[in-house]
Amino acid sequence: MNAHTQTKRPRDPRLDFFRGLGMFIIYVAHLPWNWWTLWIPARFGFSDATEIFVFCSGMASALAFGKIFDVHGWGMGAARILHRMWQVYWAHIGQFLVLAVGLVMLQNSGYLAECCGLEENYVASLNLLHLYDNAEMALPGLLTMTWVPNYFDILPMYVVILSLIPAIMLVARYSVPGAFALSIGLWLAAQFDLLSLPAEPWSDREWFFNPFAWQMLFFTGFAFMRGWIPAPPVSKTLIVLCAVVLVATVPFAYFRAYQENHLNLVWAREIREIIKPLWIKTEFGLFRYLHFLALAYLAWVAAGEHGRRLLGHGEIWGRFVRVVQKVGQQSLPVFMASLVIAQAAGILRDMVWGRGEWLPQILSNLLGFLALIAVAYVAGWYKSQPWRKPPATSSTGPSERPKTPPADGGEPAAKAKAETREPALT
Predict the structure, then answer these.
(1) Full residue range of the structural domain in which residue 228 is found
(2) How confident is the model at residue 422 (pLDDT cuts 50, 70, 90)?
(3) Would residue 285 count as lying in a domain?
(4) Dist CA 223 CA 44 (whole Å)
(5) Please, is 349 exposed, middle or buried when counting C-beta atoms within 10 Å of its C-beta (0-12, 13-18, 19+)?
(6) Where is region (Disordered) located (predicted)?
(7) How would residue 5 be classed by pLDDT, with cut points 50, 70 and 90?
């Protein structure tokens, strides 16, 4: 089919649903001193919500940007990617400043000590004191992304991975296997520490998420949506194999299995240390990749073709699915807000000395979920640009204008409409 005649592909409900679930898990993982982190997927396997975010972002990027390369050419596609990188970059800067400045204002106000007797330094807990104690290095490092505190490391990784899309698309024009070879080559270079980025100007610490390694997972999702990799068959053999992979991983990933103060499985702890290069998070070890693919396959089978099993199970479940999908559709604003909301929820919980109490723990998670849902719906409302739609008017009433066109063929009405229309913003 000619690229210019292709129709727009509908949104995949599975993509939005699982990306939404990932947003909730990421919030749980970022809420400080959160008991619920004991039950997120990362505790039972090598992969976690970061893999969900990166893989689904690759799929979404193929849908959002792939057709631009097809229809308008490589140059226009690269320009669109650059525009998206610009957006994500400033989202990262804005998110960082909101948290860094907000926490310092709260800390210096003395309010937490006066009202609740809290003496904890929340600025230091996120390693943000460099912004004030070493500003001449921290500010250039922030703007050049050579200073990336661990709490703020996902969006910088995403910016760099986005920058690789034009290179992958250029190679794929001539050879799709060549594009795979480029992606795998970058991943291998990262495994041998040949490609990395500095995370602090004053030390030799590297980015916690090496984008040259994590891009392989991103482009796996990208390749599935581009059709470079066919969908796997629904096979009982594959289902059993993937289930075995997930179960076999648990002793080496679940802390209660290998830690000394729990089950103390010495053999599991020793093997875990031996295979560390294969599950390490920074360089995206091979076992993380295999574990996620097994988990993703089972989720894909469970959702059914085109996500048909996600719906049709009652009104309550249907509403739940739609809400999660809405969160997934607005993943960038939800993710940006989640880090801020997580810190706010953690401080509010600490203000009532509820860090060790079950009710404040539950409320800090559930109310945080509600806040993320609210962010998703507000962001969706703004993206729909309701101010561009014709205003709703009553069918009858004194203020209704006559609908009879003017005698000269309607030019004055068209002119009036053009004059009142809001100009497009660039």
Answers:
(1) 44-310
(2) very low
(3) yes
(4) 28
(5) buried
(6) 385-426
(7) very low
